[in-house]
Amino acid sequence: MKKRWWNDKIAYQIYPKSFCDSNGDGIGDLAGILSKLDYLKELGVDIIWLSPIYRSPFVDQGYDIADYYAIAEEFGTMEEFDTLLAETKKRGMYLIMDLVVNHCSDQHQWFQKALADPDGEYAQRFWFVKGKDGNPPSNYRSYFGGSAWEQVPGTEDRYYLHMFAKEQPDLNWENPVVREKIFSMVNWWLDKGLAGFRIDAIINIKKIPTFPSYAPDGPDGLASCVHMVHEAQGVGALLKELKEKTFDRCGAFTVGEVFDMKPQELVDFVGEDGYFSSMFDFSAHELTFGEHGWYDSKPISFRPWRDTIFASQKKMLGVGFLSNIIENHDEPRGASRYLPSYAQNEMGKKLLATTYLLLRGIPFLYQGQEIGMTNCRRSDISEYDDISTRDQYRWALEAGCTKEQALQCCYENSRDNSRTPMQWSDAPNAGFTTGKPWLAVNPNYREINVAEQESRPDSVLNYYRKLIALRKNDAFRETFTYGALAPILEEEPFIFAYIRENQESGQRILVIGNYGDAPRTLSIGGMRELLLSNCGREEVKGGTLTLAPCESAVILLWA
Fold first, then answer.
1. 92 C-beta neighbours (distance < 10 Å), count
2. How many of the other CB atoms lie within 10 Å of CB of 460?
3. Could you tell me how far CA 317 lies from the centroid of its own chain?
4. Which of 379, 466, 376 shows the shortest CA–CA distance to 422?
């Protein structure tokens, strides 16, 4: 494999609205991010990914973009962005942004012009389609619920497609003008010095222009729009053109949010000359998917979860790099999802970090993960902001759940769990703002916060710093970056163990953790040196290793 500048990097996602508020208006901003760059540098972060900061009405928290060339006033100015970019580079770090080009906001000037003339040139930049027999063109359900078609105001039989909210009309990628305008915008940001992009919902850009209907898959008589995405052919040609006309110009790092990719396309997407540098591994997240929604989502059990991660790792050997995540802005907190109740403590959070961050691939941390932030329980649906959470709550009630059951579904699955403000200290509002936060902070900020953990050597935060430093240590960097991954002890029901091996030098490193609630004694041959422990263990010796519940260890083996 060609070695790329991003192969050995640690990435960190910032959700700007909830990271740090500098002016007391309750909304995080660019100046707040700037004030925390040294904190991120000390953590060991190389790549910072900013969730959308473009001008937006924020129907879907900035993923509905009204102007791709402007910074949302809530976050600051373009001058402040330029300063942030320059200061990031001064610290040897890289900045990437969200690229959201499957859809835009209904407030975008293109869409406003399309509404003014539904038969004109701008309407062709979207999917304006005639209905059938007084009904929408097809029976698609949007990702956020309800029909994926909205009637064009002032017309009797014209509808526009929105696979997400009705305020997020889908762009028509079959139109060459649309593609060229998108490419120009991408290059404009790259020319400013951006290092790359996280690419949102990109598999959805390819449609079947006839928009066939499918058998209903829910009581609403609709079928998920994902059925059309599954059958659409030719997305690769669009992605290849995007890469060649933008990313290839400057060696940009790109990570795709890719669901529903066809298995045979893996090499095309993230191989040696793939469309993207990397893509997120959502395999663990997908284990929770219910047949109808959150109300019938599935709990995580250890063995399928561990085996799914190993399966993802195995299929990528010799292909490329995955981006490994425990949580992000669209998922609940990993400590609440992947750890059993007895492990939802600091030792368990360190265990989870150990087994994830040393996998092969690019580790992506999400803000607050490094201090072990958790899900936040709410007492009423009115306390949630997320558009998807409100839809899922309604679906749960319609399916016969009680209010309490529906709220429990939200507690376990809501995207707002990861969007609560960053917990910087035990000061009012967790030190996030001096004003009223746009979303209420998690009450446990008094116990879980950066300031408290900064001062305690055995904290989750300081463990993350040690773990990242180990991965980057020159003595082990090649092994952790390019080395093969071989699972071991797979017959053990609660042991997560694998060996990272540098096939050139012969260096072998064991990563092992006990996710059970009882001690486990294991036969481990060739132990040479303990590199890291999450519980104060000082050495390993002999041919056996007894792991306490929630204990993890990183051990150098004899070659």
1. 8
2. 25
3. 22
4. 376
Nearest to 241 by CA among 180, 175, 194, 320: 180
- Count CB neighbours of 503 within 10 A: 11
Residue 1 three-state SS? coil
Q: Quick one: residue 72, left, alpha or beta (phi over 0 = left, psi -120 to 50 = alpha)? A: beta
Determine contact, residues 116/110, Cβ cutoff 8 Å.
Answer: no
From residue 147, give the alpha-carbon distance in Å to each of 101, 108, 285: 21, 21, 25
Query: In this structure, which amino acid lies at residue 467?
Result: L
pTM of the predicted model as reported, rounded to 2 decimal places: 0.97
Q: Cα-Cα-Cα-Cα dihedral of 288, 314, 201, 171, to 10°? A: -140
Q: Tell me the residue length of the chain.
A: 559
Torsion of CA 28, 32, 34, 36, to 10 degrees: -110
CA 484 to CA 500: how far, in whole Å? 6
pLDDT tens digit string along 373-407? 999 999 999 999 999 999 999 999 999 999 999 99
| 64/81 Cα distance (integer angstroms) | 20
449-504 tens-digit pLDDT = 999 999 999 999 999 999 999 999 999 999 999 999 999 999 999 999 999 999 99
Q: Which residues contact 191 (CB under 8 A, 6 or more apart)?
A: none
pLDDT tens for 95-149 read 999 999 999 999 999 999 999 999 999 999 999 999 999 999 999 999 999 999 9
| Residue pair 71/78 in contact by the 8 Å Cβ criterion | yes
Angle (CA) 37-350-503 rounded to 5° is 90
Q: What is the DSSP string of 478-516?
A: HHHHH-EEEE--TTSTTEEEEEEE-TTT--EEEEEEE-S
Task: Show the tokens assigned to 396.
Answer: 């749960």
Q: Give the catalytic positions in this structure.
A: 200, 257
Specify the DSSP class assigned to residue 163: S
What is the distance between the alpha carbons of residues 333 and 353, in angstroms, rounded to a whole number? 13
Radius of gyration of the chain (CA): 24
For residue 262, the model assigns a pLDDT of 77
14 residue type, one letter: I
The residues, ordered by sequence, that sit 6+ positions from 184 with a Cβ below 8 Å of its Cβ are: none
Torsion of CA 173, 175, 179, 184, to 10 degrees: -140
